[in-house]
Amino acid sequence: MTVTLNPDPQVAIRPLTKTEKVMSRAMLAAWSAPQFNIVVDIDMQHALDQRRPGVTVTDIILSACAKALIQLPAMNAHFRDDAVHEYAVANVGLAVAAPRGLTVPVIHGADSLSLDGIAERRKELVEKVRTGSISVSEVVGGTFTVSNLGMFDVRQFTAILNPPQVGILAVGSTRTIQVWNDGAPVWRPISAFALTCDHRAVDGALAARFIGVVKDILEGRTT
Q1: Other CB atoms closer than 10 Å to residue 83's CB: what's the count?
Q2: How many CB atoms lie within 10 A of CB 164?
Q3: 108 is catalytic
Q4: Are the C-beta atoms of 170 and 144 separated by less than 8 Å?
Q5: Which of 41, 85, 199, 216 is labelled catalytic?
Q6: What pTM did the predictor assign?
Q7: Rounded distance, CA 22 to CA 162, Å?
């Protein structure tokens, strides 16, 4: 990392890396799109029960999103040239923080992978991002993105779209809170999921259906 001093000795200037410049341009493009956000609370007990060596909650969320995207292909889409391009294969990106800046590697064909397959591929991609060995082919072609900050104890946040994708899911930390169950209070592990959508391609009803499918899968009501 190169850091230079400007005429004010109290200020250090750090030029953006190539990766950060690309991300900066992408974020500028994202803000040009009309965006809206919806949030649901999801009971994570079923998801937590699926964890095993090598399989994390993030993998379980990625798998749920891939299944939901195939059920609702209008969310598995790009918006460009005043048209919505729907895809038959779910290529799910995962936002990863790295020394060279935020990178979004893509699990291509995530809908055709088992949970263990997604976990293995996610681990490979994250390692490549962190070692700087990720290839261009592994960061392009995404049709949807997941950003999980739950491990940083972030309760809830709003993610910015990754153009030309029409949706991105922000996952917050899992908190044990008291909820009502048939009139009786019980303690449950709850996480806030916030879905950001491009309103040019996605309306509120579609967004609600999609996040509802993700919720049903993660809570074990459907596969």
Answers
A1: 10
A2: 19
A3: no
A4: no
A5: 199
A6: 0.90
A7: 12
